[in-house]
């Protein structure tokens, strides 16, 4: 989760020449329990470092859905892994599902679920140019795993293109 | 990318603690002694990995008292040295910080502030050590403390801290905080040109004429390296220009005045601040560290509402920019001081404003940062 935040932040600030600030939960929970990563992106320097009104929330745990997803503000795109999160009703307007964990397992390694999710994010949102995000994945993963991770990214991207079309959320 | 001599160059997405370690290496630091403590552990962790790559030494000590002593010893051996800590560890370092001041030993002490007192909230932010930074060791002294507001400044100001410590032969404090230490942002790293790296003044006389505490007009005595053939004696006792103990009021007067005046009289070479919209400001928000970024947002919002607000960001907080605050007090109606404690730097602002402008404290007890709206509301209230 934190690596995903770092990849998004790096994509925005290094490969897309903007600004990004990543804050993350810190403590024992970041090493096995529930954790969060927040990224603020802008083409101007970021002052306040925390997310106040998210454009996109990616949720990979039921507890997180209860806390952040269910009450997401209007216009916020919520992306969940339906194998990890069950949605009690279908009333949420901007909700997309990506079975990232299942896809990662089928691809060979469950650890790349987050990278599949980033590919999907690139396809369905206008947060960042897909190429910037892709380059950031390549630059952030352990040496020797680049091509496998890029394969995972492309899988998520293709899934997003095929199933969802592009989501144009509110900016700002 | 990494250059041939092991220094990092280019753009990196990195947290503040890591950027601080890289800044130290870029500044020429080649010795680190410390004891891991949240939220400063990442500084030590990175130094433990990076120092061996650049021919430096990392040592994990038994505690923070020993850590502070070890960096003083390394500095006397001619090596730029640093330690990092937080909360309780900062308290333990106070005694030997005083020794460093008394021995006029260049070194850098990083405090990634967390919420106290005592163990407090180890994983969350505080800014409660600002007065401890000023007065935490016993006896009367001056200190230099810088306060970064971003991972980029963790890199840049660590270089500045080393330069100031070498120039004035004094331990320099980097008073960061948990949010700046743990947040990740773009950090542009560069090799520092040799002429931009300050090294301590060296003896210009032959060994037989050397007096280790004899200074010129700038009040900073040249410093020999142990083993170079210069005789010197260092002691925490009050000493004369030769470095030998002298237990008289006269020797005490001469030494303490010089230790204090070398900072006070050189203040113009030390002070650094950022000013936003102060030219016509009626409300001055005075802030430092992460809080200054929240304040900057609040000032922008206030300007959009037509309120003449400005920001005075303290980059060097000790010595305190008394003259600038006095000038602003003559122009503005009020200072607003948001800080993550129950009122520390506001006391300095109030002292310098001396009743000519109101000083309004906006405290946060720690564990989080102010919300821009909270500061904006205080600006609105002060403006009516």
Description:
The complex is a heterodimer of chains A (172) and B (384). Chain A has a domain at 49-163: Pyruvate-ferredoxin Oxidoreductase, domain 3 (3-Layer(aba) Sandwich). Helices cover 41% and strands 13% of the residues of chain A. Chain A contains six helices and five strands; from the N terminus they run αβββαββαααα. Chain A has helices spanning 2-15, 62-69, 100-107, 113-124, 130-140, 146-163; strands spanning 19-24, 37-42, 56-59, 77-80, 95-97. In chain A, the strands form two sheets. Chain A has a three-stranded parallel beta sheet, covered by helices on one side. A two-stranded antiparallel ribbon of chain A has the order 1-2. In chain A, β3, α2 (62-69) and β4 (77-80) form a beta-alpha-beta unit. In chain A, α4 (113-124) packs antiparallel against α5 (130-140) and α4 (113-124) crosses α6 (146-163). The two termini of chain A are 23 Å apart. The N and C termini of chain B lie far apart (53 Å). In chain B, α3 packs parallel to α4 (87-103). Chain B has helices at 16-27, 41-50, 64-76, 87-103, 130-135, 151-168, 178-182, 249-264, 267-270, 290-304, 322-331, 345-353, 372-383, and strands at residues 10-15, 31-34, 57-60, 81-85, 107-115, 121-125, 144-146, 171-177, 184-189, 273-276, 283-287, 309-314, 316-318, 334-339, 358-363. The radius of gyration of chain B is 21 Å and the shape is globular. Chain B has two domains: 10-196, Rossmann fold; 273-383, Rossmann fold, CATH 3.40.50.920. The A-B interface holds A 6, 9-10, 13-14, 19-24, 26-27, 46-50 and B 11-13, 38-39, 123, 178-179, 182-186, 290, 293-294, 296-297, 300, 369, 371-372.
